Amino acid sequence: MENTLTVNKLSAGTAFSGNLMVRQVERRTGKTGRDYLDLTLGDKTGDINAKLWDLGTLPRDAAGEPCIPVVSGPVWVDGAAELFNGRVQFRINKIDLARNPDLRQLIPSAPETAETYRAQIEQVIETFPHEELRALVREMLTLAGPALDWYPAAQRMHHAERTGLLHHTTSMLNTAEHICAAYPFLNRELLLAAVIVHDLGKIKEMVSDKLGNVADYSRDGLLVGHLVRGVSDLDQAARNIGMAPDAEILALMEHMVISHHGIPEYGSPRFPMFPEAEALHWIDTLDARMNEMQGIQERTPAGAFSEPIKGLDNRRLYHPYFTAAPENPAAEPEEA
After folding, report:
1. Are residue 102 and residue 128 in the same domain, yes or no?
2. Of 17, 68, 239, 335, which residue is 20 to 30 A from 303 by alpha carbon distance?
3. Which regions in the chain score pLDDT beneath 70?
4. Which of 29, 54, 49, 53 is nearest to 39 (CA)?
């Protein structure tokens, strides 16, 4: 009988039978010389690495060849989660065509619609005092095109969901407003404008379908990257609106985009060199880490530690069982 477990609830020893979405798939050769499949499977709650060690269990086509699952396609799997090198992965015993898949349950999506996020961004742009900056930001959104409505913010890390890039952007806008209130010497218009455009280069950096599944990084992403591409797009947007190429506002925006990763080790060829650029870097880092930690906590039982998280320096995160409601305290987990 098919269970109703979701990926974020899978832990070592948990059996699972049901539909999952294929995020990535690669045919590899093991140490024994036998081929196996290395997959990333997921539903709307998250992803898990999976292994199919016996290709003989794959369904066959009319010519008798094994049907390798395709990226962005749903499949039905039967197997169990297990612990390998400190991480939970899924061992597939059987894989087949999806059985009456409900894509709404299989696709991670942002909590709001693209229309809602775009409306929030437009409301912010309307508050900018400088007409030229408003025009520059709107032209950047025009260059991004309709793909912005479904693009994720990352392949696997934070906001790796349909419409995740807009989710990330508007979440950062909310934080930036509070930062500006705490540090009123910051130029709010400049900071919020940079928040809106800082990651638009990711649309050219990754190859994503309309479900928000990223198959891989593009040639542009691997050779150029979204920071440098973001600067070149700003230059193009400035030309499109007739902005002077030596305008200070263009130089400031380009610097904020190219420095928002903070240090060379994370891809920024320049450190942030004025307060708004520094604020952008930390707002971006905070929003990315909070989103990732939220997802990890949702799939980690209270009172337990997660598996090592590669994107967080291989830290194991703790899910506190503490509650602030004294009338309904959380029970402490029993010692093993």
Report:
1. no
2. 17
3. 1-3, 323-336
4. 49
